[in-house]
């Protein structure tokens, strides 16, 4: 059983909540979201918001908060082989009310179908709010080009 090691990132000004499934090995090692260099999350979100791609963890944190976003994952603990979402089992969900009770979240988005599946199964009943599924920024989702991802993710502009 691996326990999610990264705290949620949000503040009272956050309007959009973006949820992944569970951090990759690289993200767990770095202690921050979307740490694998091949994951396109930071490039996509920067392109959508018309800003430079943040590089360091402090830059990424400031980028999220400056754009009134919140970031976390659906799963709080699970068994997982490496970083493979397909191997996830024995799931325990994060309590998203930690964020929802302290920020004016207007919309919840999930990064990929795995996050969406677990959000629908464990979180939607508790939050009472649907999530919108966006295509995964993972390198495993090679069918989606940067251009297609950026277009699909453009709906997050608050």
CATH class: Alpha Beta
CATH superfamily: Uracil-DNA glycosylase-like domain
Count of β-strands: 7
In the CATH hierarchy, the architecture is: 3-Layer(aba) Sandwich
Largest sheet: 4 strands, parallel
Our Rg estimate from Cα atoms comes to 14 Å
Structural class, judged by helices and strands?
alpha/beta
Strand order of the largest sheet: 3-2-6-7
Shape: globular
Low-confidence parts lasting 5 or more residues at pLDDT below 50?
none
Quaternary structure type: single chain
When the domains are counted, the total is 1
Describe this structure in words.
The protein contains six helices and seven strands. The strands form two sheets. A four-stranded parallel β-sheet has the order 3-2-6-7. It is 33% helix and 19% strand. It has one domain (2-156): 3-Layer(aba) Sandwich (Uracil-DNA Glycosylase, subunit E). It is globular and about 40 Å long. Helix 2 packs across helix 6. The model has no long low-confidence stretch (mean pLDDT 96). Strand 6 (107-111), helix 5 (113-127) and strand 7 form a beta-alpha-beta unit. With 158 residues, it is an alpha/beta fold.
């Amino acid at each position: 059983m691996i326990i999610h090691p990264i705290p949620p990132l949000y503040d009272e000004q956050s309007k959009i909540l973006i949820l992944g499934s569970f951090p990759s090995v690289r993200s767990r090692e770095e202690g921050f979201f979307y740490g694998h260099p091949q994951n396109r999350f930071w490039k996509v979100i920067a392109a959508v918001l018309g800003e430079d791609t943040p590089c360091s963890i402090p830059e990424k944190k400031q980028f999220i908060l400056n754009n009134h976003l919140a970031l976390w994952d659906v799963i709080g603990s699970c068994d997982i082989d490496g970083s493979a979402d397909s191997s996830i089992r024995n799931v325990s969900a994060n309590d998203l009310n930690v964020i929802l009770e302290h920020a004016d979240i207007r919309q919840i988005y999930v990064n990929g179908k795995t996050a969406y599946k677990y959000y629908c199964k464990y979180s939607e009943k508790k939050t009472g709010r649907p999530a919108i599924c966006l295509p995964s920024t993972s390198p495993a989702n090679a069918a989606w080009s940067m251009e297609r991802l950026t277009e699909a993710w453009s709906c997050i502009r608050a």
